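Work Package 3 (structural annotation) set out to generate three-dimensional models for the target panel prioritized at the project kickoff. During this period the team completed the workflow that converts sequence records into discrete structure tokens, so that structures can be stored uniformly alongside our sequence database. As a representative example, we reproduce one entry of 329 residues exactly as it appears in the project archive.
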Amino acid sequence: MPAADNLVSSGPMPLDPLYVVLELGAATFFVWAAIAALRRGRLPFLELLSAAAFGILLEEGDQLIFETYHYSPHFLLTVDRAPIVIGLTWALIIAGAMRITDALGVRRRYAPFVDAILAISLDLAFDAIAIRVGLWTWRGIGPAEGWFGVPAGNFNAWLWVTLAFSLTSRWVRDGSAGHPAREWLQLLVPVPAYVILLVGMMPFSLLRPIVDQARGGGLSLFVVSLAVFAALAAYGVWGPGRAPANGERLAMLDLRVAFTTRAAIHCFFLTALILLGLVPQVPMLLGGALALLAAEIPLGWLVRSRRLGPAGHVARGISGARLANPGTG
């Protein structure tokens, strides 16, 4: 935490309604997701808990090791420097991405890349807004540097955060099939996932000072990473040999929670951007956020079409109420 945050105040810090709404909202969604996970079994619930633990671990670790950012002191519940709500939000984002990927019938080897693309599509929409709202602050970078004040390394890290957790969690899923006792290994996933994240970020960290020495620079390197991840994800979604659309039994949460959570995240930051009068300052952020929100519509259509399958018109007649909405499975 910067020195300014350590100044002695004259009394307790007043509650900020923005943070109350954020923390209560995320907690409500997490409880909803946890109930959905428990209904499916022990492993889905353990996956959701470990995703939240991973989110807190990486936020705490990054602030202690790299000291590139710090969170607002207005957050109500924290684990040292990491707000608990951030860990819960990480869990919802990653779990939702994994659920949507499974519903698309992506082959196992490509699934973590699809998960990563689904996650980064959210961060690209809200991170530059979040710093202007004041939720967190990047050290040593101005609002016009990097991507509207967000360092390129952050976006690159998002790809590896999601891939690392998805890769290790899916490995535990496969290994625990028929061996229920192995499901408890899921609680250890945050540790190897964090190691994979650190290793995955090394090429970017080594090349950035050579390619782009500007503060918050490295956007070209991120674009290359994004292109590679997107190409592998696209092949997994549309390439040959896809698996059947599935995930209902093992998913951490159902599609209704996944899509509603993504929409809620988009709407929260869009509302903050508009109500706080930030649009005139950075109109491009509004356009980008709206475009990424709109992209959720074709994503929902694609999931729906995959779940209906070639005989979708027949399935609709049998269970039309359930299949009319992609978020009901």
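The two ends are 42 Å apart (CA to CA).
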